[in-house]
């Protein structure tokens, strides 16, 4: 069996368990080792010590927008045929890389993704707590990205993860359904991976109710029958609505001085709440703290669930499928306009073939458009800032207007963070547009353009010219012949 070309992406918020998750990858023999190991550091702030320091691990800075955006940044930066996603708290066994290779080798051309089998150890000598039961639910859950490998072509076809999902909830189910809708199949592999039993915090079930808002996005994007497609039992929202209605009715009746009606509705609420608490308490350990937790949270969960559902319905009203890319940032010279070295003359500006169509197509698809351009001629004294601005205005007249411009005036020796292949201009442009860097794509003609995208966690598409080196072509995850073809590639995952 030959080794499939695969990369491993691990998003993290700095858990100590990260090193345990990476160990089998770092210790794997060359015959089974991944071609790339990418850790997406999703901790807020950039002035932090690295989460891991190893020559085989590449660190990508996340945006702090949650696991969907972090995984998006991770696969954008990879070139491999397969992208395997692992959580930072799983315990893959020593032979996991070899067994992953076997799973991928067994996949036919129509297979878009292969899931690993998740096992969760049971607590010794007692029934699991409510929080632990949530972790145990990962066993048998379909298509969860705790251990899931996707073909890069499948991710490209659907735009990858939907970054509107802010939590580690539903973002994996959403991706799986879109991959299936795109004509790929998904299968369960033979490899296994242990997920430790999370003890959870007191009252953790209250915070979990935020997932009801994500369910409204699933309904909007996939229709109300999506649970049937993944074999999931109906949620408990209908019961929560009835319980909350009884409580609300009892309160209104009391305010209206109708004690009999208030008492009847209140008794109904109390009966349903007590039954709910009893079901949860008897499923767990006979621990007084757990029983109190179940009693209190059982009273609070129904109104919280309804509140989050209402908030999600407002937030996601009119939601539809969107591509993973929300903004396209073009390189200027050689991509949008013909490359005239150190050009300061607006009269010499000539759009490249496909540039106008590319910008127009991006706008029709609802994407923001911008320009990120190195202009070291300023640092070299060959150009004045005003000349660069005049050329940019001419580009705007011919192809724009663009939503954002970023120009780096520095030379290579200045050590700035904005000059491509550094990520500064991409991150700054994304911030001005109000999107995460992982929701951007960079279209350029040389390796520094796609390298800047990779460093920022954005998607990079190379549009080669006669100046593009062969090694830059080989290193680029995605290549297209002209800017219009690049944009068509980026928007094809959107719904019609």
Structure description:
The structure is a single chain. By secondary structure, the protein is an alpha/beta fold. It has 18 helices and 12 strands. It has a 7-stranded mixed β-sheet with strand order 3-2-1-4-6-5-7, with helices on both faces. The protein is globular. The model has no long low-confidence stretch (mean pLDDT 93). Keywords: Carbohydrate metabolism, Cytoplasm, Hydrolase, Metal-binding. This is D,D-heptose 1,7-bisphosphate phosphatase. It holds the Pfam family Glycos_transf_2. It comes from Nocardiopsis aegyptia.
Number of helices: 18
| Percent range for β-strand residues | 5-15%
Instruction: Indicate the radius of gyration in whole angstroms.
Output: 26 Å
* Fold-level CATH name of the largest domain: Spore Coat Polysaccharide Biosynthesis Protein SpsA, Chain A
Give the strand order of the largest sheet, numbering strands 1, 2, ... along the chain: 3-2-1-4-6-5-7
Q: How many strands?
A: 12
| Helix share bin | 40-55%
């Amino acid at each position: 069996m030959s080794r499939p070309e695969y990369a491993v992406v691990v998003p993290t918020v700095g858990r100590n368990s990260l090193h345990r998750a990476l160990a089998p990858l770092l210790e794997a023999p060359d015959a089974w080792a991944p071609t790339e190991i990418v850790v997406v550091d999703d901790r807020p702030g950039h002035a932090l010590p690295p989460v891991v320091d190893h020559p085989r691990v590449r660190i990508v800075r996340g945006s702090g927008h949650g696991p969907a955006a972090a995984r998006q940044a991770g696969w954008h930066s990879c070139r491999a045929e397969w992208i395997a996603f692992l959580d930072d708290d799983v315990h893959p066994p020593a032979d996991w890389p070899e067994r992953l290779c076997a799973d991928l080798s067994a996949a036919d051309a129509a297979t878009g993704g292969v899931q690993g089998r998740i096992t969760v150890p049971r607590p010794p000598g007692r029934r699991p707590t409510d929080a632990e039961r949530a972790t145990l639910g990962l066993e048998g859950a379909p298509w969860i990205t705790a251990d899931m490998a996707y073909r890069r072509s499948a991710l490209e076809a659907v735009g990858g993860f939907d970054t509107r999902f802010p939590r580690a909830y539903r973002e994996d189910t959403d991706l799986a359904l879109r991959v299936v809708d795109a004509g790929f199949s998904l299968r369960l592999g033979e490899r296994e991976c242990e997920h430790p039993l999370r003890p959870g915090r007191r009252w953790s079930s209250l915070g979990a109710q935020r997932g009801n808002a994500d369910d409204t996005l699933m309904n909007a994007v996939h229709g109300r029958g999506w649970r049937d497609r993944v074999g999931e039992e109906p949620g408990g929202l209908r019961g929560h609505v009835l319980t909350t209605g009884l409580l609300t009715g009892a309160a209104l009746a009391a305010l209206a001085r109708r004690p009999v009606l208030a008492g009847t509705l209140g008794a109904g609420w109390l009966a349903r709440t007590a039954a709910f608490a009893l079901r949860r308490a008897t499923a767990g350990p006979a621990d007084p703290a757990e029983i109190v937790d179940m009693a209190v949270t059982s009273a609070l969960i129904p109104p919280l669930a309804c509140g989050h559902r209402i908030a999600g319905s407002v937030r996601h009203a009119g939601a539809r499928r969107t591509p993973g890319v929300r903004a396209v940032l073009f390189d200027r010279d050689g991509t949008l306009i013909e490359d005239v070295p150190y050009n300061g003359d607006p009269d010499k500006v000539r759009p490249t073939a496909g540039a106008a169509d590319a910008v127009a197509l991006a706008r029709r698809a609802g994407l923001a458009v911008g320009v990120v351009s190195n202009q070291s001629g300023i640092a070299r004294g060959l150009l004045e800032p005003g000349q660069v601005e005049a050329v940019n205005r001419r580009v705007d007249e011919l192809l724009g207007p663009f939503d954002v411009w970023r120009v780096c005036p520095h030379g290579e020796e200045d050590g700035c963070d904005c000059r491509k292949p550094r990520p500064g201009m991409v991150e700054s442009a994304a911030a001005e547009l109000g999107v995460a860097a992982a929701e951007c794509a960079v279209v350029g003609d040389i390796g520094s353009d796609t390298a800047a995208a990779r460093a920022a966690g954005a998607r990079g598409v190379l549009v080669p010219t006669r100046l593009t080196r062969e090694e830059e072509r080989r290193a680029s995850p995605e290549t297209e012949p002209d800017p219009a073809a690049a944009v068509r590639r980026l928007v094809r995952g959107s719904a019609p």
